Amino acid sequence: MIVSTKLLFEHAYGKYAVGAYNINNAEQIMGLFRGCVESKAPFVVQISKGARSYTDKLLLEAMIRAADEIFPEAIFAVHLDHGDEETCMDCIASGFYSSVMIDASAEPFEKNVEITKRVVDAAHAKGIAVEAELGQLGGVEEHVSVSEADAKLTDPKEAIEFVRLTGCDSLACAIGTSHGAYKFTGTQGLHFEVVEEIARLLPRFPLVMHGSSSVPQDEVERINAAGGKLPGAKGVSEEDIAKASKMGVTKVNIDTDGRLVWCRVHREHFIEHPENFDLRPVGKVFMSEYSKYIQDKNKVLGSAGQLESVREFIKNAEV
Ligand code: G3H
Ligand code: 13P
Ligand code: ZN
Predict the structure, then answer these.
(1) Which residue range(s) make up the domain with 10?
(2) Is the pLDDT of residue 145 over 50?
(3) Helices 57-70 and 26-38: crossing angle, nearest 10°?
(4) Which of 5, 37, 54, 207 lies in disulfide reach of 77, CB 3.0 to 4.6 Å?
(5) Quick one: pLDDT at residue 151?
(6) CB of 40 within 8 A of CB of 297?
(7) C-alpha distances in Å from residue 267, one per residue of 32, 34, 176, 263, 274
(8) Active site residue 81
(9) C-alpha 298 – ligand 2 centre gap (Å)
(10) For atom 8 of ligand 1, which residue has the closest CA?
(11) If you measure from the C-alpha of residue 210 to the centroid of ligand 1, how many angstroms do you get, rounded to a whole number?
(12) Whole-number pLDDT of residue 23
């Protein structure tokens, strides 16, 4: 069942975070749905601009609709990840998305407000929620490159003003994470004081943590042992993810970890079975391994086991 991100966040706030997992193909969709249904967790299916053009946006949307039928017990929202204004407007017009993210965080504050507000007005007219971003994550984003040194944490005072001026429904905050597999080179960590202050100034307002892959070290070691070259890959610790999930972070974005599982499974499979050239045997292993990853991650986020409570909450909210 496709639901509003707003309701998912209301139910989660302060208790747990909903996993927002990026998908690009059928195998990821199957692994994700299986993992969430097995662990009885609500979730967000997240589609980037790149994912929409990898095969075709219509194919992705049709696969998600099909997964909804294959897994009737699943409760999830469909979300555009890191949209520009044009992509947001396209998703709003499609009527398929529960929410869109407008990422104008590379722009100066006033321009970010201006663009975000236009998207909010269009989205709200159709009952769609909007995630916006203030501050800049380190690492490389889809359309902007920010060096770690220049990364700009979200200013809590600016955050209240930004939410007031734009009317956005959730806020992606820069708190020390970055996208990709190389998040920390030294002893950097998350800035919980920033989360705490934003949550104090914007009580019960849903916050989003991007760049939240934990880059499991056993995955990295297995990839490297199977011929990969990922020296020094490092992610956010699961302790930090669990802590943020109880502090007002209601959505935790994960993409890189899924790619690592994919890479490890495929590298190992073809080394162990050099005679194989069929996509299905390895695809089956990936779906099963990705489902296991998702189940474990949902336990860390605290979303595992929340499915029936969310179902009840949504039923009552509809009355
Ligand atoms: O934050 C970006 C996401 O990881 C999406 O990555 O643009 O390569 O699909 P992508
Ligand atoms: P990771 O690169 O840490 O998986 O972050 C994904 C993300 O933030 C998608 O918006
Ligand atoms: Zn992101």
Answers:
(1) 5-318
(2) no
(3) 30
(4) 5
(5) 54
(6) no
(7) 21, 23, 31, 6, 11
(8) yes
(9) 16
(10) 50
(11) 10
(12) 98
Q: Whose CA is nearest to atom 10 of ligand 1?
A: 50
Number of domains in the chain: 1
pLDDT (tens digit per residue) in 40-72: 999 999 999 999 999 999 999 999 999 999 999
Q: Which atom of ligand 2 is nearest to the CA of 82?
A: 10
Ligand whose nearest atom lies closest to the CA of 254: 2
How far apart CA 294 and CA 35 sit, in angstroms, is 5
Q: What is the pTM of this model?
A: 0.95
Length, in residues, of the chain: 319
* Whole-angstrom distance, CA of residue 123 vs CA of residue 100: 8
CB 52 within 8 A of CB 94: no
Looking at residue 164, which CATH number applies to its domain? 3.20.20.70
How buried is 232 (Cβ within 10 angstroms: 0-12 exposed, 13-18 middle, 19+ buried)?
exposed
d(C-alpha 175, C-alpha 36), whole Å: 27
**How remote is the CA of residue 48 from the centroid of ligand 1, in Å?**
6
- Angle (CA) 165 167 168, round 5°: 120
CA distance 152 to 273: 46
DSSP helix/strand/coil, 134: strand
Q: Residue 66 contacts by C-beta under 8 Å, 6 or more apart in sequence?
A: none
**Helix count (H) and strand count (E) of the chain?**
13, 10
